[in-house]
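Quick start: load a record and inspect it. Here is Oxidoreductase:
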Amino acid sequence: MTTKIVPLVSINNNAEKSVDVSQIQLGAFRWVWGDFSLKPEEAFDLFSKSRDIGITTLDTADVYGDYQCNKLVGSVIGQLSNERDQIQIVGKTGIRLISKHYPEIHVAHYNTESEYIYKNIRQQLIDVQTDYFDILNIHRPDYLLNPRDLVDTFEKLRTEGMVKNFGVSNFDVHQFDLLQSECLKRGFSLVTNQIEFSISHLNPVLDGSFSQAFKHSFRPQIWSPLGMLHKETLSEKEKRLKSKVEGVASQIGATADQVALSFILKHPVGGLPVLGSTKFERIKQGAESLQIVDKLTRQHWYDIYEASNGEKVP
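Running the structure step on this input writes:
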């Protein structure tokens, strides 16, 4: 029998009702990538094996894979309709990319207008073969965003049972505060901000994003959690950072990937790494970071931070 190594955790303690997600999450970002695509049976096998070890949260977006990824996700979810309450699906909306599937789009842009968001979510739910998203994130901040109109749309989607909870992705602290203030007026909170954080991208520690997460009692979802570890070409600084991570890995009996994930998990904000690999062996190895994170000491963490930041702390 497979051992579940990934627990469920509450993503937002301020929500009207506890929103539980898996502490490590599976991302569908690379399920369709250029000329590559998982076959439906491969995608189902990947998610099934991930669920066996406790990864029950699946993160997707309409624009992934040139707008084709959600249909592949749907081929998986459609087979699990009787188990839907045991799965958490995080969707995203608001980005419009140039695509052969949408010839009317001639410039990449963002769209958070009410009519667009509502129609987009209806179509996404059809593609994903589900009745609702557990969490819907606004994918990127729209420079023409009207917070009152957008929260009106949130309320409509929630009232109609299409979305249970709302969050954002890639919002800075001011953009988050603006939308959060409007949500709070209506009696609910944003449940997350999905942001980039890794050994090679320290911004959330420095720009107030993690402080804001503490303030509003939510766990940020973390995209690109492995940073530059698997880049084909590294700068001299990145080579030094990779060498530092590999050195720490050797000291604590872990892989470099596990050290990179432990660097995230060590931070008390409770970040939720979204793993994008299409290979279960790497997903499982990443999940096992939860078992070695205590071996990463505070000094290890700051040693990696210093190598990444390029200077000692003051």
